[in-house]
Amino acid sequence: MTELQVEYFINVAKHMSFSETAETMYVSQAAVSRQIAALEEELGVKLFARKYRRLSLTGAGEILLEMFTRHRTELQETLSEARKHQSAESLVLNIGLLEGIDMDEIYWSILEFAKQNPDHEINISIASISSLIDGISDGTYDLVFSFHQELKGNKFIRAIPALSARFQFYLSASHPLAKKQDLALGDLVNETFVAPIADTDYVRREYRNRLYSICGFIPKKLICKQNLDSAMAEVRYNGCVAMLYDLTLVAKQDSFRILPTDSFNHISCLQSRANTNPLLPRLIRHLAPVML
């Protein structure tokens, strides 16, 4: 049982809605559902009853809600103290890097840190934005490097700017606009856009707002893909336009027309504030020279 699972439970009980809890805590609904299911399995009780699409607390849920609410501060202090006493002889650190982004300096610096700490297991995974965001929220990862619009304002996540990325627009070399010498942002107003983002109302809204702030229009049609490869296939074969970054690794640059902008975003180093793995602060200090 984790502190984050308890927070999910308390928030679901407060809103009586998985979707509203997800939006309030800036995570996906699937992440909330998984953590509640894991908490129920560990406790051996059902916390919520579902009838006629309405959510309510079970008797056990009501008892546990009162206990968790009353002892939340005590639980946090107890867990913190308990974690201090866990064996530090062999620790595991799971790190997630955003797919399709040039993070060579960070990657090699993590490998250097691993060589300096041979007694510990340090794992590096490459994953999509949605997987990384879910993973840092549910504890799959100790540390991730990703864009994090979905976690803006999330008090449970600490974000440190790591890399600066310039927005660029990608078109297939065979796109009708690709040969236009004076191609401008306004020429894209009627195009279909594709983005490697989670298909949720919140993420779509954030993407549209970002696009509007950069070029002054909202796309008439937006296709969401779960990973970069799928998004770039839409650009290459279906004539879509993708708003990506100058750090994006595209296999064949000559296959695309790239339109740069003057707008930037940040890839951040993200960690849960509840994570007390003693390797984390050491790794972050080690990475400081290669981050912003």
Per CATH, the superfamily of the largest domain is Periplasmic binding protein-like II
The number of distinct helices, counting runs of at least 4 residues, comes to: 9
Poorly predicted ranges (pLDDT <50, ≥5 residues)? Answer: none
The first-level CATH class of the largest domain is given as: Alpha Beta
Describe this structure in words.
There is one protein chain. The chain is of the alpha/beta class and 292 residues long. The protein folds into 3 domains: 3-84, Winged helix-like DNA-binding domain superfamily/Winged helix DNA-binding domain (Arc Repressor Mutant, subunit A, Orthogonal Bundle), CATH 1.10.10.10; 92-163 and 268-290, Periplasmic binding protein-like II (D-Maltodextrin-Binding Protein, domain 2), CATH 3.40.190.10; 165-262, 3-Layer(aba) Sandwich (D-Maltodextrin-Binding Protein, domain 2), CATH 3.40.190.10. It is built from 9 helices and 10 strands. The strands form 2 sheets. It has an 8-stranded mixed β-sheet, with helices on both faces. The protein has a two-stranded antiparallel ribbon with strand order 1-2. Helix 1 crosses helix 2 (18-25) and helix 1 (3-15) packs antiparallel against helix 4. The longest helix is centred in the N-terminal third of the chain and has 26 residues, at 59-84. It is globular and about 65 Å long. The two termini are 35 Å apart. The model has no long low-confidence stretch (mean pLDDT 87).
Strand and helix map with partners:
Layout (H helix, E strand, L loop, with lengths): L2 H13 L2 H8 L3 H15 L4 E4 L2 E4 L1 H26 L7 E7 L5 H13 L4 E7 L1 H10 L4 E4 L10 E16 L19 E4 L5 H15 L5 E4 L3 H11 L2 E5 L10 E17 L6 H9 L5
